[in-house]
From TrEMBL:
Native organism: Xylanibacter brevis
Domain called PNPLA: residue spans: 6-173
Protein name in the entry: Patatin family protein
PROSITE patterns per record: PNPLA
UniProt keyword terms in alphabetical order: Hydrolase, Lipid degradation, Lipid metabolism
InterPro entries registered for this protein in UniProt: Acyl_Trfase/lysoPLipase (IPR016035), DUF6363 (IPR045943), NTE (IPR050301), PNPLA_dom (IPR002641), YjjU-like (IPR037483)
Alphabetized SUPFAM superfamilies for the sequence: FabD/lysophospholipase-like
Residue ranges annotated as motif DGA/G: 160-162
Length: 282
């Protein structure tokens, strides 16, 4: 039987739209064999393996205006817009408890994508339990350049996985996942442009020339991956779930009402696509 995969693109706070879609899938009892998440797709997608629908929107709203969680205060004091210790270790341990037991016992394979800043290449890491280092892998996947410190894990120096492999459908297919649902955070017809902040990126990443090159070429990589997904969709190799229009939220947001709106838009699309999802995974 073909392995069923779920591929989750990133997109910073647009990921709350994805959270809405996958919460509907969880509530409907849909169980992929594996999930691969990039950036926000990793940070919010891990709740699928722990079977905690509603968790991502709940803690983001709760701490939206808490400077311990995120904001310029955190960036200037710690070097991370999303505070590394509070957001990725204290919140899941003390405030909105991450169900590490269910995560470990759930047979769904969960993989995160990061970018090694020394090579500019993607690093794929499967997580089968939750501990401090596991949460660091998730943090690394979601650590956006310029507003995050490089995350050191083992021999790797890591940042945002979306820089090197934004939509890892081809990778997941190479791992034996042949029936994939791909959840994008941009509408049909979207094309990424060259990053206008590259002069600042070059300064911030001046010690990592391969990472600068990956950032400079990211729009080409991303648009090529969109073409790959479109062709796979035409051939029936994947089912694509995408927003019906531009998601009305920026990369960063501190408005709980806006967060809830985006999440509900994701749920609406999840309900609309539920029968198609069930049929595709059948």
């Amino acid at each position: 039987m073909e392995k069923k995969g779920l591929v989750l693109e990133g997109g910073a706070m647009r990921g709350l739209w994805t959270a809405g879609v996958i919460d509907v899938m969880m509530e409907a009892g849909i169980k992929p064999d594996g999930i691969i998440g990039v950036s926000a797709g990793a940070a919010f997608g891990c709740n699928y393996k722990s079977q905690q629908p509603g968790r991502a929107i709940r803690y983001n709203k709760r701490f939206a205006k808490d400077r311990r969680y995120s904001g310029w205060h955190s960036l200037f004091r710690s070097g991370d817009y999303f505070n590394a210790e509070f957001a990725y270790h204290i919140v899941p341990h003390d405030y909105d408890i991450f169900d590490s037991e269910t995560f470990a016992n759930n047979p769904i394979e969960f993989t995160v994508v990061c970018t090694d800043v020394t090579t500019g290449k993607a690093v794929y890491h499967q997580l089968d339990h939750i501990d401090y280092e596991t949460l660091e892998w998730i943090r690394a996947s979601a650590s956006m350049p310029m507003v995050s410190r490089v995350v050191s894990i083992g021999n790797h120096q890591l940042l945002d996985g979306g820089v090197s492999d934004s939509i890892p459908l081809a990778y997941y297919e190479s791992q034996g996942y042949k029936r994939n649902i791909v959840i994008l955070t941009q509408p049909a017809g979207y094309r990424k442009s060259h990053n206008a902040l590259m002069p600042l990126m070059r300064l911030a990443l001046r010690h990592y020339p391969n990472m600068i090159e990956a950032m400079d070429q990211r729009h080409l990589m991303y648009n090529s991956q969109l073409d790959y997904v479109t062709q796979a969709e035409k051939e029936g190799r994947c089912l694509v779930i995408r927003p019906e229009g531009k998601i009305p939220i920026g990369h960063l947001c501190h408005d709980p009402k806006r967060m809830q709106l985006v999440y509900e838009l994701g749920r609406e699309v999840g309900y609309k696509q539920l029968d198609a999802i069930k049929e595709y995974y059948r």
